Amino acid sequence: MTEPASPKLFQPLKLRDLVLPNRVVVSPMCMYSAEGGVANEFHLVHLGQFALGGAGLIFTEATAVTPNGRISPEDLGLWEDRQIVPLGHVTDFVHRHGGRIGVQLAHAGRKASTYAPWRGKGAVPAEAGGWTVVGPDSYSFHESFPTPQILTEEGIQETVGAFAAAARRAQVAGFDAVEIHAAHGYLLHQFLSPLANTRTDAYGGTFENRVRFLLEVVRAVRQVWPEHLPLFVRLSATDWAEGGWDVAQTVALAKLLRFEGVDVLDLSSGGLTPAQRIEVGPGYQVPFAAEVSRAETEIAVMTVGAIDTPAQAEAILQQGDADLIALGRPFLRDPHWTQRAARELGLVPAAPEQYKRAGW
């Protein structure tokens, strides 16, 4: 008699030479708790708890590649060497407890220099630590947000270099994976979408021009990031707004990203325009992942958003809609979500010796 297959959520996944013990991923979540871009004890405890809880892969929050690329003054950064060692303490802890950890590299563009959600709304003034922001054109995200300076072609190349330099620092810090953030209305997404990119040069207008900046960043990062470690890219699959970025363009871009050495496409949505009309419901972004998965892009896909239960996550994988499941809020509510999921799916959860008395 054939033994039943283990739940797909707990089957390993090999990405280049990195083997994930399961398909559960802690999604990048901004914590707005750094000073000068430097990680501290909060980040060690916050991210370390997910390793103790058995997550297959843990991502840091959006980590800025330049000071003016931070969303808020309290964001993490990897724009200078002094930020390496504190993040190394985090990766060392995760590795000592059997975990894998990646860093999400980001530039907020016209959505930079804004308050953390519980500290205020809109633009942070200069006297409170705010700064000049940049974007593909001079239009702000919202009237309460900063007005951007147009990023010149020279500035674009400097930003490409900043992503590559941050990836080198990420390697020194001991990260297992890098994710390039090109979603949620931040700089690279701004260049992708016709709703935020009105340029008429080589970086605006046609699809080929609008994706150019992201492809240059990917190429530069892949060149310095170790060949044996995976590279992720997060995209907003749709702007949820007429005339914006959509799923068809996402599929077309996915094929290009695979050619450039990207291993996983992390698919979210929205964030580009206040005019968006998002149809939220359980697993509402899964169909985007499913469409890319079935488009023969030859790239692994991670889905995220309103996925709460182990049964829901397992069904997504069993249907072939995605290869990895990323969760955010569920992990904030329960850092041991992975172990609980194993129990609910009929397995004996892996747990540190110190935690086994809990009855896992």
From TrEMBL:
<keyword id="KW-0560">Oxidoreductase</keyword>
<feature type="domain" description="NADH:flavin oxidoreductase/NADH oxidase N-terminal">
    <location>
        <begin position="8"/>
        <end position="345"/>
    </location>
</feature>
<dbReference type="GO" id="GO:0050661">
    <property type="term" value="F:NADP binding"/>
</dbReference>
<dbReference type="InterPro" id="IPR044152">
    <property type="entry name" value="YqjM-like"/>
</dbReference>
<keyword id="KW-0521">NADP</keyword>
<keyword id="KW-0288">FMN</keyword>
<dbReference type="InterPro" id="IPR001155">
    <property type="entry name" value="OxRdtase_FMN_N"/>
</dbReference>
<protein>
    <submittedName>
        <fullName>2,4-dienoyl-CoA reductase</fullName>
    </submittedName>
</protein>
<dbReference type="GO" id="GO:0010181">
    <property type="term" value="F:FMN binding"/>
</dbReference>
<keyword id="KW-0285">Flavoprotein</keyword>
<dbReference type="InterPro" id="IPR013785">
    <property type="entry name" value="Aldolase_TIM"/>
</dbReference>
<dbReference type="Pfam" id="PF00724">
    <property type="entry name" value="Oxidored_FMN"/>
</dbReference>
<dbReference type="GO" id="GO:0003959">
    <property type="term" value="F:NADPH dehydrogenase activity"/>
</dbReference>
